[in-house]
Amino acid sequence: NIRLVKLADGKIAYELIDKSLENTVIANNTVSNPKASKAINISLSDGSKVWLNAGSSISYPVLFTGTERKVSLQGEGYFEVTKVNLPNGGPVQKFMVEAGSTTTEVLGTRFNINAYNDDNDVKVTLLEGSVALSSGSSKVNIKPGQQAKAQGGGISINNHVNMDEVMAWKNGFFQFDNTRIEEVMNQIARWYNVDVDYPQGVPKNKYWGSIRRDQKLEDVFKVLQESGAHFKINGNKVTVLP
User: Which member of 28, 68, 87, 150 lies 3.0 to 4.6 Å from 102 by CB, making a disulfide possible if both were Cys?
Assistant: First the structure.
């Protein structure tokens, strides 16, 4: 009862053909966006939209049934969730995103989740609406403009979030604001599909600024070198030097 289409602008969309669920087996799909790929946009069957960053994947049912809509994310995704009421005037159908051991529960809202395996935490940043985040025995509600960080079963709240930095990947930029070199290189490694090594340890440098993601890798490194970073490049391997 679902048609999967690729739109003229390259977006992926699920269209409901028949609302009847009789004798219907609900399948799960997974979309993976490899490293060195542009962000992709998916429209789910309920009208919710998801953008996937490079090196990310999302699994979801092709049609949402029951009292909740549940998807699973690895990597980074930005969500614009459509508010859906259950039939016959029922309550709002919850939308839940599982990322590792962390669950984000929403009704209808806009938010970003960063949950790459090579990071030590899961970061949920809320742009609009309300979100409940649970990790282990901890559970918090966050407001627009806040970021929740789940690490080791605990959750901390950041009230001073640079939204431009959080959403830069979706808008085609690298955006750094007092950002550690390790985090800078993690973003570059996913976007350009390179391996990064720190044979003499991770430098303490931090960086500010914005770089377009359509730049060649060599040009990105030139900008970082002008800011004091040092690299040695051999094929797809990048060695970070003190």
Answer: 150
